[in-house]
Amino acid sequence: MTLTVSSHGGAGTALPDNPAEQHRDWVACLDGMFAFALWDERAGELILARDVMGIKPLLRTMVEGTLLFASEAKALRAHEGHVPRLDELALAARLAWEYPLDGTTLFADVFQVRPGTIETWALDENGNATRTGLCHFDRPMAVGSWSQTAVVGAAGAMVAGEPAKSWNPQGGAEKLLESFVASVSDRLMADVPVGIVLSGGLDSSLVAAVANRAAERAGQPVPDCWTVAESEDNPDWLAAEAVASSMDLQHHQHILDESSFHGRLPELAWHGEDLDVTVLFFQPLFERMAQSVKVGLCGQGADELHAGYPRYRNLVEHSKLVDSRLAQIEHPGASALLSGELPIGDAWWSSDHRPQVHTQSLGKFLQFEAEHGQLVNFQLRLVDRHSMAHGLEVRVPFLGRAHRREANALPMAWRLPPDSVFGQEKAALRAAADLTGLPKEIVRRPKLPAGTATTPTLIGELLDELMPRAAEIAKRFSGFDRVLAGQPDITIGLGLFYATHILDGGRRVQSKGLVDLLDEVL
């Protein structure tokens, strides 16, 4: 019997004759990052599954009854029937929220397997692929409590709920730190060399700070650190030097070359499959690391769990900003996003993504960003794309089960304290960092945007040079030109994305230069 189900069922929902349910227990036991496809020849069944936080990507599409799946959309082009097209509804959400939402990609009819989900597929009587089962073994949670009985045989699963009412740094900070050491220790297990992506910010610095302790526990070598920046007086460069020195870690540093920075932008668009050009430093950073190590540890996920982004301080203003961007888009997709009438299915896991729905409270917004957007569809996606382009596997200790268990229960006041009481964002995490021996100026260092903090001058000069073309490219995308006018960096990114992935069915020669590619869009 074939079961037709949509991809928005609740976690833990049991469906009759649902073959995916039989795989729930063993998949739920996995603590780590994964996206896999298993073919059971005896059962004639394909199993697709993805880790609960969506650290590793898994995309799929259908072409005339044939199921195609891959970790990157560009791989789907290997099938002659697949022709990449721009998804304008997904683009509207990307331009308004700054990240794609739910199961969408920027490619029409190319969807993500939902994090924490198992799908089963088989061939019907006509030889066409059909989904026969679906179950959600866990949810990507930022706020909630843990249930030992939610998943039989597993180490526990997240369930929706309120965080703790109070938290005492006396004892609580050590417990939070210990959970992070355990996560780092688990992710040092490897039969290849491991390194640390060190930006000098609090999150990556905390990875470096516990490296010795975690390595001793894991019985593994202490990892080296890698940093890139545009100059030796860059704040990130100096902060990373201070961290590596204070923790007695080997530190590899590289100054970014201006000419290669400009020349590698098409490569960034090709590998990233996104519109963000400010993370161009990822390419030379991961390329350098891959020459010495095959695994990296990064600080991704900390801001989403511990409320690190500046927008969290004024959710009302952020809601107005998203609304204003949607109002500038003259496309039916913007109307669907503003009205809360999105078509639930593989692309959209919720019908209502109006900004005011998700910004009612900090806890609600943290959960929205963890489950529907910022974390899985932007931060994790970009790091995975750009690191794997160089054969570097980047692991994310902040999203390990041990640390999530402690972080999810933190009161909001210890994630984003009122200014008059505690001060900086990520207060509990900073209290834990105070126990590591990190320099105080690092523990108290404020959150800075990754790309623009690492290469502010190079990015500024690049945008100044390309500003006239950005204005012309914005006009090329009718209905989106007004919202693009205020985001020149995203406009350049959209032009490159369109040139490298969509024009001529995405079979454009990749050896062309930056300006030539942008001019082809005009």
Highlighted features:
522 residues; alpha/beta; Rossmann fold; five-stranded parallel beta sheet; four-stranded antiparallel beta sheet; 23 helices; globular; disordered N terminus
Task: Record the SSE blueprint.
Elements lengths: L23 H5 L6 E6 L4 E6 L8 E5 L2 E5 L17 H10 L13 E2 L4 E7 L5 E8 L8 E3 L9 E3 L9 H19 L6 E4 L4 H8 L1 H8 L5 E6 L5 H12 L4 E5 L2 H6 L1 H8 L9 H9 L4 E3 L4 H5 L8 H14 L3 H8 L15 H4 L3 H11 L1 H15 L4 E3 L5 H7 L19 H7 L6 H4 L6 H5 L1 H21 L4 H5 L2 H15 L11 H8 L1
Parallel strand pairs: 10-11, 10-13, 11-12, 13-14
Antiparallel strand pairs: 1-2, 2-6, 3-4, 3-5, 6-7, 8-9
Helix pairs in contact: 2-11, 2-12, 3-5, 3-16, 3-17, 8-22, 14-15, 20-22, 22-23
Structure, briefly:
This protein has 522 residues and is an alpha/beta fold. The chain has 23 helices and 14 strands.
Please provide a written account of the structure:
This protein is of the alpha/beta class. Among the domains are: 163-310 and 383-455, HUPs (Rossmann fold); 458-521, no CATH class. It has 23 helices and 14 strands. It has a 5-stranded parallel β-sheet, sandwiched between helices. The chain is globular, with a radius of gyration of 22 Å. The model is unreliable at 1-15 and 147-156 (pLDDT under 50).
Question: What portion of the residues fall into strands of 2 or more residues?
Answer: 5-15%
Let me know the number of strands. 14
Question: Under CATH, the topology of one domain is which?
Answer: Rossmann fold
* Biggest sheet architecture: 5 strands, parallel
What distance separates the N and C termini? 51 Å
Q: Could you report the average pLDDT, rounded to the nearest whole number?
A: 91
Radius of gyration: 22 Å
Coarse morphology:
globular
Instruction: Provide the low-confidence segments as ranges.
Output: 1-15, 147-156
What's the CATH class of one domain, please?
Alpha Beta
Q: Provide the CATH architecture of one domain.
A: 3-Layer(aba) Sandwich
CATH homologous superfamily name of one domain? HUPs
Q: What structural class is derived from the secondary structure elements?
A: alpha/beta
